[in-house]
UniProtKB/TrEMBL annotation:
The gene is xynA1_3. InterPro entries: FN3_dom, FN3_sf, Ig-like_fold, SLH_dom, Striated_Muscle_Regulatory. CDD domains: FN3. This is Endo-1,4-beta-xylanase A. It comes from Ruminiclostridium hungatei. Gene3D superfamilies: Immunoglobulins. It is an enzyme of class 3 (hydrolase).
Length: 779
C-alpha cells in the first residue's frame, strides 16, 4: 500500500507539472498572436533528423537583449503552436519529437527585454521518412590532389547528399560539396599533397534539414605525395648507371625500382634517404650494353607518391659534349657551339628552357659529329638556356649533359642609371652603369634644349662608367645620353638625362602635421623643374639647420626622431647642384605627447613602435595603463591596428554572419573588406574574434599596403628556402610572405639552432605593433 501510495503521489506531481507546462504554453500562445513581426537581426534555422521520431535544431544567437527563445511548429496545413520545450537565454539549439505521416513546419521566435515577440528564424519544412541516413562510404586516394568518394543509401535509394571534410588535427567539419539526387560519387580536388583527410556524408531533405552524418567519426585517407619529376639517367660505365630527379615532396625516402629484360617486372633496386636527388646504380647484376627501365616514387610512413615517368637507360658509355657556349648578336637568333668528345654517337639532342621556366624540353636533334646549332625562334629581350647530350638512336643510349649556358637575346644591353653631380658652375660629372660585356666603346651625346639635335661630344673606351663635361653653363638646359656599340655595329642608348644648373624655384605652400610624439609630416608644392633634391630645415637656437633631404619631384617628408611635446619651425629649399633655392614659407608644428604603458619593460624591442602608434591613437588602450604586449590578438584587433596606422578607414558597411554593427572593430573590418584586404569564407564569415596567425597577419599587411597604393616590391619565394619550415608553407601565400619578409616587416625565429618563420603561430600585440610601425617607415 505504501508503494502504491508513493506511486500515486508521483503521478499527481507529474500531472501538476504537465498542467503547468500546458498553461505556460497557452499563455505564450496568447502572446504569440501579436508576435508576427520579424526581428531586425535574424538567423538561419537548420535541423538534423536524429531518428524517425526526433529532430534537433540549431540557430545563431546574434542578439544581446533577448529574454527567451520559443520553438513553434505547424502540422500539415494547421496553425503554429508553441512547443512545450524549455529553451534558455542565449541557447542556440533544442530537440523536438514528432509523429510520422505528417508534414511539419518549424520556426523560432524571440522575446526581447521589452517583452516584444518577434519571428527570429526562417521556416523549415520536412516530412519524416522522406530521407534516410547513408549506410556506406568508401574513400580512395587517386593522386596528390585528388581523393575519390563513393557512398550508398539503404535500399539503393537516392537523395541529395552533403559531403563534409576535416583535415587531420582539426576538430571542426566543413561542408565541401552538395551532390544531386542520383549521384553517389565525388572527387575532392581541393586538397594538399601528403595530408590525411576525414570525410563523412549526410542526406539533405532540403537546404535546412539533413540526416545525421555517416559515419559520425568519418573515414580517412592520405592523399598521395607529389611524385618526383625530371627523372634522368645515363651510363657512367658498362656496369654503372647514374640517376637524377627533382624532389617535389616532403618525403622520408625514395624507392627506386628497376626492370631488367631478364625479369620483365619492376623490382626494388634501392631506398634513398629524403632530400637526396641522385643515385648511382652499381648492382653487380648490371650487364654491359643492356637496356634497363627505371622509375621512382616518394614515400613517408603513411603514404606515397605516384611513380615518376619510366626511363630506359642502356649500359653503354658515351662521353658527354663539352665547352658549350652561346651568343646572340642580332636579337633574333642564338648561336650554340660545343665540342664532340665521342666517335660512336649517332647524333645530339639540344634541350632548351626559356625565361624563368624551370622545365627543360627537347628542342631539336642534330646528326653525328655536329658541333653547332642556330636557334631561330627566339624573341627580343628574352632569356634562353641550353644543354646538349650525345645519343645512339637504336639502343636508348645517352651521354650525360654538357654544361648549361644561358643567353639574353638582345642586340646589346643599354647603359643604365645615367645620373650626374655638379662639380662647379661650369662642370658636371656623368655616371652610369656598364651592363654589357661585349661593347667596343661608348659615345657621350648631348643636345641643347628639348628640341635640339644630338651631337657626340666624346668617344670613350670599353668599360668606361664616368665622363666630366666642362663646357656647360648655368643659363641653359642640356640633355645627355650614353650610346654603347659593339663590333657588329649593334647599338643601344641609356636613359636621357636633363641637366640645368639654374637656381631652382622655391617650394611653396609648406604645411606640417604632427603624426606622433616624435614625427612630423611635411608637405609642399614643388615649383621647380630642375631640382636634384629638397633640403628640409628646422630652426634651432634662432638658426635653421638641415635635418633631412627628399628626392627630386617629391612633395612630402616625414621628420623623425623628434622630442615629444616640442614646438618646431620648419622650412624647405630646392637644391640643384651647388645652387639652393630661396626658402619656402615657414610652418610651426608641435609634436604630440609621448604615450607610455606600464608593462613594456620586457619588450624593449617594441617600445618605440608601441609608443609612436599610441600617440597616433592607433590603440584603444588608454595611456599609462597596461598594454599586455605578449597577449595574442584577434584578427579584428589586428585589422584595426593596420587600418588605423595606414589611415585606410573608410565609411562603409557590410553584412557578414559573424560581424554585426555592434562589433568593436566593425568600422575597420568593413573598411578592410571593402578594400579587398580581407574576404569572407563560403559561409560569409570573417572570424574577427579568432586569434590571428603570422601567415594571416603578413598577408593582410601586404594587401593593406597594396590598397594604400604602396605595394611591397616583388620577392621570389626562394628567399624563404633558408627557413626549416619552408616546405610546410602554404604555396598560395608564399609570394606575399616573401614580399613581407623581404621588406623586413617579418623576421624569423631560431628554434633548436635552426631558423623558422613559424607562420602558424599566433601574433602578439607587440608583434602587431612592430609590423604596422615598420610598414609606415618603409623606404
Amino acid at each position: 500500500m505504501r508503494s502504491l501510495h508513493s506511486g500515486n503521489k508521483n503521478i499527481l506531481r507529474y500531472i501538476k507539472k504537465a498542467s503547468l507546462v500546458l498553461v505556460l504554453a497557452i499563455l505564450i500562445q496568447s502572446i504569440y498572436i501579436a508576435g508576427t513581426a520579424h526581428a531586425l537581426v535574424t538567423s538561419k534555422l537548420t535541423g538534423v533528423i536524429i531518428s524517425d521520431l526526433q529532430i534537433s535544431f540549431k540557430w545563431g544567437d546574434y542578439l544581446t537583449n533577448e529574454k527567451q527563445y520559443y520553438l513553434e511548429r505547424k502540422t500539415d496545413a494547421g496553425s503554429y503552436e508553441v512547443r512545450p520545450i524549455t529553451i534558455y537565454t542565449n541557447a542556440t539549439s533544442c530537440t523536438d519529437y514528432y509523429e510520422t505521416g505528417h508534414t511539419y513546419t518549424y520556426r523560432v521566435k524571440v522575446l526581447d527585454a521589452d517583452n516584444n515577440l518577434y519571428i527570429y528564424t526562417d521556416e523549415i519544412i520536412f516530412r519524416p521518412g522522406d530521407v534516410q541516413k547513408p549506410d556506406s562510404l568508401t574513400v580512395t586516394p587517386i593522386s596528390s590532389n585528388q581523393i575519390d568518394l563513393k557512398w550508398g543509401y539503404p535500399g539503393n535509394k537516392a537523395y541529395n547528399t552533403i559531403i563534409e571534410r576535416r583535415a587531420e588535427g582539426e576538430t571542426s567539419w566543413g561542408e565541401i560539396a552538395r551532390v544531386g539526387i542520383g549521384e553517389n560519387t565525388y572527387s575532392d580536388k581541393s586538397i594538399w599533397s601528403g595530408e590525411r583527410y576525414y570525410y563523412r556524408v549526410r542526406a539533405a531533405a532540403n537546404d535546412s534539414v539533413v540526416t545525421p552524418a555517416y559515419p559520425d567519426e568519418g573515414k580517412s585517407a592520405y592523399s598521395f605525395l607529389y611524385k618526383p619529376t625530371e627523372l634522368y639517367g645515363f651510363a657512367l660505365s658498362s656496369y654503372q648507371i647514374q640517376l637524377t630527379w627533382k624532389d617535389n615532396s616532403i618525403e622520408t625516402a625514395f624507392i627506386i625500382e628497376r626492370k631488367s629484360p631478364d625479369e620483365g617486372v619492376f623490382k626494388e633496386a634501392a631506398v634513398v634517404p629524403q632530400n637526396v636527388t641522385a643515385f648511382i646504380d652499381s648492382d653487380t647484376k648490371l650487364k654491359p650494353n643492356t637496356t634497363y627501365s627505371y622509375r621512382i616514387k616518394a614515400v613517408t610512413g603513411a603514404t606515397a607518391s605516384e611513380y615518376s615517368e619510366v626511363i630506359n637507360i642502356t649500359t653503354t658509355y658515351l662521353k658527354p659534349p663539352g665547352s658549350l657556349t652561346s651568343s646572340c648578336t642580332d636579337g633574333k637568333s642564338v648561336q650554340l657551339q660545343w665540342q664532340d668528345f665521342t666517335d660512336n654517337e649517332t647524333g645530339f639532342e639540344i634541350w632548351r628552357k626559356t625565361g624563368t621556366d624551370s622545365v627543360w624540353e627537347l628542342y631539336e636533334s642534330m646528326g653525328r659529329n655536329a658541333t653547332t646549332f642556330t636557334d631561330l625562334t627566339v624573341s627580343l629581350e628574352g632569356s634562353y638556356s641550353y644543354k646538349v647530350r650525345a645519343k645512339i638512336n637504336t639502343n636508348s643510349v645517352y651521354s650525360d649533359f654538357s654544361n648549361e649556358t644561358t643567353v639574353w637575346s638582345s642586340t646589346i644591353t643599354a647603359p643604365a642609371n645615367l645620373t650626374y653631380e655638379t662639380v662647379s658652375q661650369n662642370e658636371i660629372k656623368l655616371t652610369w652603369q656598364d651592363t654589357s660585356n661585349i661593347e667596343t666603346g661608348f659615345r657621350v651625346e648631348r643636345k641643347l634644349g628639348l628640341g635640339g639635335e644630338w651631337f657626340t661630344i666624346s668617344y670613350l673606351e670599353p668599360n668606361a662608367v664616368t665622363y666630366n663635361d666642362k663646357w656647360i653653363n648655368d643659363t641653359d638646359t642640356f640633355f645627355y645620353r650614353i650610346k654603347v656599340f659593339d663590333r657588329a655595329n649593334s647599338v643601344n642608348y641609356s636613359n636621357e638625362l636633363m641637366v640645368s644648373l639654374k637656381k631652382p624655384e622655391a617650394p611653396s605652400q609648406l604645411a606640417a602635421n604632427a603624426l606622433s610624439s616624435n614625427e612630423v609630416f611635411l608637405t609642399w608644392k614643388d615649383n621647380s623643374s630642375n631640382e636634384s633634391q629638397f633640403v628640409i630645415e628646422v630652426m634651432q637656437y634662432y638658426y635653421f639647420r638641415e635635418v633631412g633631404r627628399a628626392a627630386s619631384n617629391t612633395a612630402y617628408f616625414i621628420c623623425k626622431d623628434l622630442n615629444p611635446e616640442k614646438t618646431l619651425t620648419f622650412r624647405v629649399r630646392a637644391v640643384n647642384g651647388n645652387s639652393l633655392s630661396d626658402p619656402s614659407n615657414e610652418v610651426v608644428a608641435t609634436t604630440k605627447k609621448k604615450v607610455a604603458y606600464s608593462d613594456l619593460s620586457g619588450v624593449s624591442w617594441a617600445a618605440e613602435a608601441i609608443s609612436s602608434l599610441g600617440s597616433r591613437n592607433v590603440f584603444d588602450i588608454p595611456p599609462d595603463t597596461r598594454f599586455y604586449p605578449s597577449q595574442k590578438i584577434t584578427k579584428g584587433e589586428y585589422c584595426a591596428i593596420v587600418i588605423r596606422t595606414l589611415d585606410l578607414v573608410k565609411s562603409s558597411a557590410g553584412s557578414y554572419s559573424d560581424v554585426t554593427s555592434r562589433h568593436r572593430y566593425y568600422k575597420e573590418l568593413m573598411s578592410a573588406a571593402k578594400l579587398g584586404i580581407i574576404a569572407p569564407d563560403k559561409n560569409n564569415r570573417l572570424y574577427p574574434d579568432s586569434t590571428i596567425t603570422r601567415e594571416q597577419a603578413g598577408i593582410i599587411l601586404a594587401q593593406a599596403l597594396k590598397a594604400k597604393g604602396t605595394p611591397l616590391p616583388y620577392k621570389d619565394s626562394s628567399v624563404l628556402r633558408q627557413f626549416a619550415d619552408y616546405k610546410s608553407m602554404t604555396p598560395a601565400s608564399t609570394d606575399k610572405i616573401a614580399a613581407v619578409y623581404g621588406a623586413g616587416l617579418m623576421t624569423g625565429k631560431i628554434k633548436a639552432g635552426r631558423p623558422y618563420l613559424d607562420l602558424s603561430s599566433s601574433v602578439t600585440r607587440a608583434e602587431a605593433a612592430v609590423m604596422a610601425y615598420k610598414a609606415i617607415n618603409l623606404k
